Amino acid sequence: MSVVPTVRQLLITLGLCMATALSSAAWAQEMVSVKVNSLNMRSGPSTSTGVLWELKRGYPLKVLKRQRSWLQVRDFEGDSGWVARSLTNRTPHHIVKAKVANIRKGPTTKSRIVGTAEYGDLVRTREKQRDWVRVQTSDGKAGWIARRLLWGW
Predict the structure, then answer these.
(1) Residues 97-150: tens digit of each pLDDT
(2) Is residue 141 assigned to a domain?
(3) 142-146 and 132-136: which strand pairing?
(4) Are residues 98 and 85 located together in one domain of the fold?
(5) Residue 137 maps to a domain
(6) Is residue 1 part of a domain?
(7) What is the pLDDT of residues 123-133, one digit of tens each?
C-alpha cells in the first residue's frame, strides 16, 4: 500500500487550506462604517427590536455575522448589536481609544504636535504607514496618530 499522496489529493488539501485561510482572514478583518448621518444599532436583526445606540456618520464597526440584510457588529468598546447593511459602507475611519492622542505633522514621535484628539473621537482615515495612521478630524485638523491609540481601519 502506497502512502504517497496523489496529485489530486494534494490539490484538494491545498485548496481546502487556502479557502479556510482566506475566509478566516476576510471574516476576521471585515469592517464597515456608518454611511448615513445617524444609524440605530439594534438588539436584533429587525427594525422592531430595541435601539441600543445611535451612531453617527463614519463610525467604524467590525462585522461579526451577516443575516439577510443585517450585520451583527461590534464597536471599539466591545458592544455588539445589529445594523442594516444598506446603511453602511467601506469608507475607513478610526476611533481614538486612548485618553488623549497627539496629532503630529509626520509619522514619528519626533514630529511636531499639530493638535490632539480624545477618547471616542471619530477621525477619517486617510493613509496608513507602518505604526501610524494619517487622519482628519471633523473640524479639519489633519496629521498622524500612532496606530496603537486608534481602533478601526
Answers:
(1) 999 999 999 999 999 999 999 999 999 999 999 999 999 999 999 999 999 999
(2) yes
(3) antiparallel
(4) no
(5) yes
(6) no
(7) 999 999 999 99
132 in a structural domain: yes
Side-chain-facing half-sphere of 19: CA atoms under 13 Å: 6
Domain that holds residue 77: 30-89
How is residue 15 written as a grid cell? 485548496
The label of the residue with cell 446603511 reads 87
Amino acid at 110: K
Q: Which CATH number is 82's domain given?
A: 2.30.30.40
The residue whose grid cell reads 498622524 is 144
Instruction: Give the cell for residue 46.
Output: 429587525
- The 93-96 sheet, strands edge to edge: 113-118, 100-104, 142-146, 132-136, 122-129, 93-96, 150-152
Q: What is the dihedral of CA 149, 129, 74, 88, to 10 degrees?
A: 130
Quickly tell me which residue has 476611533 as its cell: 95
Q: What pTM did the predictor assign?
A: 0.78
Same domain? 116 vs 80: no
